[in-house]
Specification:
Elements: H1 3-21, E1 27-28, E2 34-35, E3 41-47, E4 59-64, E5 73-80, E6 95-98, E7 110-116, E8 121-130, E9 135-140, E10 150-160, E11 168-177
Antiparallel strand pairs: 1-2, 3-4, 4-9, 5-8, 5-10, 6-9, 7-8, 10-11
Length: 185
């Protein structure tokens, strides 16, 4: 059976289950692939330092997991798109907290945090997964801000809990960096 037919059948089954039970259930295909019923939403992205070539910045990405997600959030991947400079990150300095502001919520425990130079990405696993109905902010630390000013795009993909989780692209976090004029005054 073609994958499109399997997806339609799975979503139809989930819609019937939601209608009968009044609550969202996760979508799971016959092969064990798990999907969010309603995927998380990328709320925003921001940086603590907007100047080029600055050390010590943190990039924050905030996601909201809807009540009817059907599954908790297990992992996110943040991938830098084409841009003048490729950034490198300190995976061991990655942090997460509940809420829209990093310092306003409960710190969330993380499992593995890995970087991939080829895909220019950081993968962050929550341990335990983040429950539906929560908002989470993740802070990743670059070795330094880019050398070149401009707009840098970071694609965010969310994965539900499960061994065969299907990642759903949430959109781009956009960070702007500005070059200084080089003068001290």
């Amino acid at each position: 059976m073609p994958i499109a037919t399997k997806l339609v059948a799975a979503f139809a089954s989930a819609a019937c289950t939601v209608g009968l039970l009044g609550t969202a259930q996760a979508v799971s295909l016959a092969d064990g692939t798990v999907y969010f019923t309603s995927p998380p939403r990328l709320v925003g992205a921001r940086t603590t330092q907007k100047s080029t070539y600055v050390w010590g910045a943190t990039y924050y990405f905030t996601l909201r997991i809807p009540e009817n997600a059907g599954e908790p959030l297990q992992r996110i991947t943040i991938a830098q798109r084409e841009s003048p400079d490729t950034l490198q990150f300190y995976p061991e300095q990655t942090r997460a907290s509940e809420g829209e502001r990093f310092d306003s919520g409960l710190t969330l425990p993380l499992g593995s945090v890995t970087t991939d130079k080829e895909t220019r990405s950081v993968s962050i696993t929550f341990d335990p997964p983040v429950a539906p109905g929560k908002t989470v902010t993740v802070g990743i630390r670059p070795k330094r801000n880019p050398d070149s000013g401009g707009v840098y795009l970071f694609g965010v993909t969310a994965f539900p809990a499960g061994d065969k989780a299907y990642g759903q692209f949430l959109g781009f976090g956009r960070l702007s960096f500005y070059e200084s004029d080089g003068g001290l005054f």
